[in-house]
Structures are given as C-alpha cells and as structure tokens.
Amino acid sequence: MKIAHITSVHPQNDNRIFYKECVSLANTGYDVSLIVAGGESKTVNGIKIIGFKKAQGGRLKRMLKTSFLDMLKVCKEVDADIYHFHDPELIIVGLYLKFIGKKVIYDIHENNPASILSKPYIKSNFFKKVISFIFDKIELFSAKYFDALVTARPDISARFKHKNLITLRNFPILPNFSKMKEIEIQKSKPSVIFVGGMTQIRGINELLDAFEKLDDYELWLLGPITEKQLKNRIESGCKNVKYFGIVEAYEVFNYINSADIGIITFLPVPNHLYTLATKPFEYMACGKPMIMSNFDYWKEVFDKSALYVDPKNPKDIAKTIDYLMKNKKLVKKIGELNKKLAINEYNWQKESQKLIDLYKRLKK
Questions:
Q1: Whole-angstrom distance, CA of residue 355 vs CA of residue 22
Q2: How many other CB atoms are there within 10 angstroms of residue 141's CB atom?
C-alpha cells in the first residue's frame, strides 16, 4: 500500500509527522512518501521526501498556490492509495482527493477554532471570533467525508463524531539512554530548560523576567523564536539565560538530560488550556521534575509529576524554581516518578500501535 503524508506548513523534519508517524509506518513495511512545501527532494530512512517550492507573497496567495494548486499537482503525480494530511489549509485538497477515489486521513494537531482566537496577525477580536466560528463549521462538516481522523489530544477528539477516529498523543520516542553522548555545555549553575517554539503567548517573556533575579540558576532555551520582538530580546542577551538555537529532535534529550528541571509555562489562551504539548513528556522521559502552568487540565493529567505556577506571574515562577531547586528529595522523588511513567505509558513506542492498527483497518 502506497501512503503519502502531506503538509504545506510543517518542515521536512517535523517530529510528529516525519520521525514519529512516517518512520513508524515505513518500519511496518509500507511505501511511504512525505510531500512537503519547502526543501529538496531526497530519501531519508526509506521515506521518499518530495519537496516543492513555496510560493512567495502574501498569506492568501501562498495558501492558494502552495496549499492547493501546487500541492494537488504533486499529489496527483505521486498517486498514493492513502493521503494523510496535516494542515487545515489542506482540507480542500483532502476533499478533492476523496472525490477522485482516494482514501484520506485528516491529522488534526490543534484545536483550530480555539487557535484562531490567539492568532496575533488577526488584530480584531471580533473578526477572530467570526473566523473561528466559520472555520469550526467548515471543519466539522468536511471531517465527515474523510476515511479517518487522527487527533493529537483528547479535547480535539471530543469535537468530532467519526467511526474511524483515534487520539494519537505526542509522546516522545524514547532514546537509548545508555548510548547517549554527553554534550559539552559550560554549566556553572543548576539549570532549568525550556524546549520548543518560543512566542509571547507561550510565556517566554514572563520566564525571562523570572530569571532576572534568579542569580543562583540559569535558564536554557532551545527552539525557534518566531516573533521579532522576542527574538531581539533573547539574542541581545538576557540575565542568567543561555539560548542554544534550534537542534534536531534526536539531540533534544541530550540537553534535557544535562538540565535539572523542565519548565513549560504557557499563558492561559484558549488553545493552551487543554493542550498536551510534547515537551513535558520529554522532560519526564529524562527523569526530570517539572514546573508547569496551573491549568486545571494539566493538574489533572500530570498530577504529582510537576509543581504548578501562575504563568503570568514572574515572582511566582521564580519562587517555585528556587523552592524546587533547594528541595533535593522532592527533585529526586518527582524525577523517579516521571521516568517510571514515561517507560510504562508515555512513550511513542506504545502510542504508535494505534496508528498502525488504523492503517490495517483502512487497508481492508
């Protein structure tokens, strides 16, 4: 069976799409291609990556040409049996592929209507609500026509009624820690690590503010910075902060392993309140205690795996970091619990079986 995963937004080396889903399916024996806007065509891990050039210009032009016309042309050339798409911009492509007799899977990474309410490029709150409402109806209507839905979180799954729906959580691929190489970091203080894309609504400014007065500790940041103002602040040099840039997914564990505490203090915008970000599970896999936003859902899911703070309050963040760092017994206790949970449940090796079973059903 010939499978094509398609994305016009994510990079070729996207952790969920390439390293988790595509690699898992290729290892099962399927013929897997990844059609992606941007980058060169090549074969990696037995997966044929088919890159095509992104259109230049405004957002609307890029969506029309890249996410529809160009994507559809490449999809026809590949002629797969199943197309598995990862972006809401590709819903029309998915519907067309279904119309011409292909099997189509819609992989929903975010609660998209809630995400629209936090988009910084839509300035008007009124228009955010209108666009969110309209997209919600379009997405729910379109989803009925696809052969299967894959979601990244239970709250996303709850939006849909579909006979072939699976919740495929973004648990980490556990590395072989015994073969992990030491990385060379000049570590003069105990460290707190944040891994992931950095934006204002992910609480990075408040985190930087917290470390202004935490001279006994340092903050490690890994990942892309997508906002100019935040990028300028970090790259100009922040007190007690080290920025390591963007690293490959398989290198992330090296940095987490060398840190002392993992942190994720997203601000309470609609799309964050029920999110299951990948990073907490990566911290857990390395046996690290965590400090997290005090969302009710996170407290329910992670329970004793973390200490919880008001993400809008730098003083609360700083106070909790200091408390945890000084409580070595608690650090060890939470770390051991988290490592055990990661090995027994929160890992991609177990979670991927849902995806493999779904493809077996669609194959019939």
A1: 10
A2: 10
pLDDT computed for residue 344 by the predictor: 94
Q: What is the pLDDT of residue 357?
A: 97
Query: Which fold, 2-171+348-363?
Result: Rossmann fold (3.40.50)
The topology (CATH level 3) of 177-344 is Rossmann fold (3.40.50)
Domain residue ranges in the chain: 2-171+348-363, 177-344
Question: Could you give the CA distance from residue 1 to residue 341 in angstroms, rounded to a whole number?
Answer: 35
Query: Both tokens of residue 160?
Result: 């849909």
Q: Which residues of 101-126 are buried (b: 16+ CB within 10 A; e: fewer)?
A: ebbbbbbbbebbbbbbbbeeebeeee
Let me know if the fold of 2-171+348-363 is the same as that of 177-344.
Answer: yes
Distance from C-alpha of 152 to C-alpha of 278, rounded to nearest angstrom: 10
For 14-63, the pLDDT digits (tens) are 989 999 999 999 999 999 999 999 889 999 999 999 999 988 877 777 78
pLDDT mean over 320-347: 97
pLDDT at 176: 79
For the chain, give the secondary structure using H, E and C: CEEEEEECCCCCCCHHHHHHHHHHHHHHCCEEEEEEECCCCEEECCEEEEEECCCCCCHHHHHHHHHHHHHHHHHHHHCCCEEEECCHHHHHHHHHHHHCCCEEEEEECCCHHHHHCCCCCCCCHHHHHHHHHHHHHHHHHHHCCCCEEEECCHHHHCCCCCCCEEECCCCCCCCCHHHCCCCCCCCCCCEEEEECCECHHHCHHHHHHHHCCCCCCEEEEECCECCHHHHHHHHCCCCCEEECCCCCHHHHHHHHHHCCEEEECCCCCCCCCCCCCCHHHHHHHCCCCEEEECCHHHHHHHHHHEEEECCCCHHHHHHHHHHHHHCHHHHHHHHHHHHHHHHHCCCHHHHHHHHHHHHHHHHC
Q: For residue 249, is pLDDT > 80?
A: no
